[in-house]
Amino acid sequence: MPPKTHVQVETFYAHHHGWLHGWLRRQLGNSCEAADLAHDVFVRLLCRPTVIEPREPRAYLSAIARGLLMDHWRRRELERAWLEVLARTPEELAPSPESRMLVLEALIKIDQMLDALKPRVRQAFLWAQLDGMRCPQIAERLGVSLATAERYVAAGLRQCYAHRFGDA
Q1: Chain segment 124-146, per-residue pLDDT in tens
Q2: Does the keyword section mention Nucleus (predicted)?
Q3: CA distance 135 to 150
């Protein structure tokens, strides 16, 4: 990172970190999680090749933080759902703590991949993969042509392929 960018982020941090932490604490109701997310906002700024100098720095920071909050809440929801599945799993079939973490990480990656898809593409892809629906059924349910349903499913498959083989 160029030294000028480092100084810009350091100045930005000095002027706005306290406010951002407070804003995040009000959103989350937890000071520790707020501190982690505030840190992540500034890490994002540090990773950029140049720092934008916005006219409204707090609006800029809160926009970045909102995206991180959405990721945080989505991850929390996935963790909750996974813990519910584990709670219903007989003890003798329960995965090890290491396996539990690996599955959770995989679920988070899948969620991120699916989130990158447009809603109708995501829905068509999930119907095809999870419900075994064929493209004519998907087309009918979505009210689109067969070719469009096929394109939607193919787009989902391409997204999976790109994530699996690093083309994303």
Answers
A1: 999 999 999 999 999 999 999 99
A2: no
A3: 6
